[in-house]
Each structure stands twice: as structure tokens, then as C-alpha cells.
Amino acid sequence: MLSFFTKKSPIQKLEKELNHLLEEAFKLSSINRKKSDEKIYEAEQIAIKLQALRKAEI
Length: 58
What we know:
This protein is mostly helical. The chain contains two helices and no strands.
């Protein structure tokens, strides 16, 4: 019930941002391929950061 008061971990924040960018890239893929590729590149950079955080967490 009070989940909106809890802080999200950096991993959760990056996962949310990654999913958002991938959804946006999918929507743009049929409209503007260049912008879609840019969003995919941004998502890949976040995925690299996410992997580094997960590796450091272990």
C-alpha cells in the first residue's frame, strides 16, 4: 500500500529506463528509423551500466 514511498534501487531505475527506451524505439521503428536506432543505442548503453551494477552487486 505504501510502495510509492519506498526508494527504488539504481538497478530498478535503470531497468525502467531501459524498458521505456526499447518501447519508444519500437514505436519509432515504423516512423523514423534513424531516431529508432538512436534510442536502441541509448538502451544498449544503459544495458551495459545495468550489467556492471549487477556484477558489482554479486
